[in-house]
What we know:
With about 80 residues, the protein is an alpha/beta fold. The chain has four helices and three strands. The protein has one domain (about 1-75).
Amino acid sequence: MAFWHRWLGGDATSDSHDQIRQNLSDGKAIMLDVRSQRERDTIHLKDSIFIPFAEIRSIAPQAEEVPQLPKDKIIYCH
């Protein structure tokens, strides 16, 4: 969790599945898919942003933030 907190600026959510769905539907949140390409090729989440964990690890140490991610929305990771 320290990695996510440090580079993505957040903590684990206590939001219910219903609240997550509602936040996504209302445009208050995005779903970040951090799985490998192989896992994503099997099945992917509709409208998710795909940035593999390995890529985030390579971006994050050099930057304060991951440029592809909005700063004004909740980010749920899968």
